[in-house]
Amino acid sequence: MANYFSIFLVILTVASGLIWLLDAILWAPKRKEKIALAKANTRGAIDEQTIEDIAPIPSIVDTAQQIFPVIAFVLVLRSFLYEPFQIPSGSMMPTLLVGDFILVEKFTYGLKDPVVRKQFYDVGKPERGDIVVFKYPEDTNIDYIKRVVGLPGDTVIYRNKRLYIKPACTDETNCPAAQPVPVKKVSSGEFMLENMPLDEFTESFDDHEHNILRNPAMPEFVTRYFIQQNQRVAQWVVPAGQYFVLGDNRDNSRDSRFWGFVPEENLVGKAVAIWMSFEFERPQDSVIPGWVPSGVRFERIGGLK
Questions:
Q1: pTM
Q2: 81, 171, 210, 248: most buried, per Cβ within 10 A?
Q3: Given this model, what pLDDT does residue 153 score?
Q4: 243 vs 194, more confident
Q5: Active-site residue (options: 6, 91, 253, 256)
Q6: Which one is catalytic: 146, 253, 256, 277?
Q7: Is residue 166 annotated as part of the catalytic site, yes or no?
């Protein structure tokens, strides 16, 4: 849906720009000639209303002149700088909640054209810990948001609800073994899922810290994990130009464990801030529709980590 909107913006921008250009080249000079002739015949004694009647600007041209600057600005802003997204599910709790509206920085991982999404300028690469929006590999019409935990060449292991990472290593004879990512329990029961208390942990790797959730009552669905050729179950080696991503709500996230890797060309951008956050909690017997916000979480507005 987002890509369709980008295509619509491009078409509207090009169309309105062409109409404005054609008017400047073909029709505007003829209107000026009519106005100049009318002024000469009346010795300049002519009012603005009469000028408009003699050489009216066609409505399609007037509309194009009005909307082109606005549409062009929105196109550039949305395609190359920042794009808003809404969080529809709880897979990134506690970092992101349902009802959060986030800003995604589009230029962080390179500039891409808004139609076929072909990168034409390289800016940077994702880092471990980045929250990224990407086109879901199994259906690129859907946007997903997850956290990058595995970079190209990394070995990622997820076993007994613990994350292990072995960074990419060129010298296999001196490569260290995969190490567990440090975690520290923060709380239990602050976050709930279907009346089930969740355990909250702080997870750390490199110079980055973030919080994750685990459901102690939910087993690992190892039998559903994506199995990479020549690798053990629950172990993956990230191919070149691809990334391994996880949701922060580890037992309520369909991520790389289940469908594999995110190709670099699928990356949309890096989530950098929450610009608005609505809550939708209300009694089940409420007559107000569920999509109507019940409040604003102003305390959540700000940068992401």
A1: 0.84
A2: 248
A3: 94
A4: 243
A5: 91
A6: 146
A7: no
